[in-house]
Amino acid sequence: MSNIAGRVREAFRGDQRVDADALIARLDAVRRFLTAVDGLLPDADLVPAHTLVERAGSRLALSRDHTVVALAGATGSGKSSLFNALAQLELSPVGVRRPTTGVTHACVWGPLEGANHLLDWTGVLPRHRFVRESALDADDETALHGLVLLDLPDFDSVQRSHRLEVDRLLGLVDLVVWVVDPQKYADRVIHDSYLREFHRHRDVTVVVLNQADRLPPAEVPRVLDDLRRLLDTDGLTGVPLLATTAIDPAGMVGLRDALERTVAERQAALRRLAGDVDTVVVGLDELVGSARPAGGPDDAAINGLNRALAGAAGVPAVTEAVERAYRHRAGAATGWPVVRGWRRLRPDPLRRLHLPGPSGDQPDPAENLVAATSVPDPTAAQRSALGLAIRAVADRAAADLPAAWPGAVTSAARSRLGDLPDALDRTIAGTDLGLDRRPLWWRIVGGAQWLVTLAAVVGLGWLVLGYALRALGLPRLDNPMVGQVPLPTLLLLGGLLAGLLVAALTRPVVRWAARRARDRVEQRLTARVAQVGDEYVLTPVRIVLGSYAQARDALRDAARR
Cβ distance 294 to 230 under 8 Å? Predict the structure, then answer.
């Protein structure tokens, strides 16, 4: 047995110390990860991380002067006998009936009061708590002061409640001593369901081949070598492995020495939590990966979104109305004064859309209670185009992200889809279309039209007065001549012809200026609609991408040891 004990001493030298502050920083990084992904990833994938944060906080808040060690094993492995041999008291029932251990028993070395809160947390009932403290021991048990030893139920019990209790406690204890016997040490249940799952907790795992006294002395090394091979396959390379026997005090030396060193180091709880963090980080790494996301979707996707938003907002209808309104207003300002009033009787095209009419008139406030504008609702094709554009934005933004994130990005991109129609309508209604100011050239042309019209009226009046005087037999007016043409006739005909000429020359200018006004309004509305798209679609996407970056950085910090 001395060689085996030597192996255990070597394995428990305590070279891999865990700094408490570093561990707390790693746990804080896991908390930051959970905060970053809250509401973005499936809750089922985050349960281990939430459990770790809660359990680690509770364990660190409890006594750090105690080390909780569990004896775990199958039916008939001799756990309870080992438990009683370490305590040197008959505390846990031992018998032929299986499963023998139905509840967890605890033995505390040192005062029970200091460990009660820890035992309350583990759920060990008070009637199953014992104290290993006797005046007859003198200083024999001092080396184990602070040890809380648990005898767990059999993990292969036919009672499902026993297995659940074992699984619960295995997630709480600081160190696990797996007890196997020579007959069932290769049982697939313990290797596949338990030992293999503890491969990231090698620092807090001990395996003992109990009841070694049942083997011939020459067979013990062979069985241990075979068990070591199985443990290596389980990923537990280097874990302490020793043979024990509860009926011979010499067969307990190696295990007791290991427990004494563990208690003295006060590192088991920290190592266990560090292993838990490693396990959680590996699981979360599949959700995050190493991709560094872009700041958002590419320009092509954004331009497609802006075009789709402009179509859904009715920008084409508004810009067409702007062009017609410009021609309408320009005609009213530069046309013949005698027909301007008739033009004003025709409704302004923008007024039909409940947009600012002539001279900046606003629609009736009562009408605004229903809708900001009367721009036609988007067609089915426009709604479909908008949905495809939003999907393209999400797909481009999430192209390099792990499988768990594209859904979150898509949900974010569509999260405010229901608010988009009203936001677009308000944007269209609140955009200055730039038609309130009358261009200077309108006034110049309008003034010229008034002059030529006045000339025609003067000439007409002059001619009418001359005919009236002749009809009444009164002296005739002496009409001045301009060459061979009387001045009144020249004023009348010249005024009419000049008016027609000004109108003919102005008409193409008005059409050109109307198209420019339309282009300016289209650019202005498209820019405003793009702002709506940025707020309602792109910003939620960027928030998710930012959360991903925060989660990735937090997980990187949690992985540092």
Answer: no
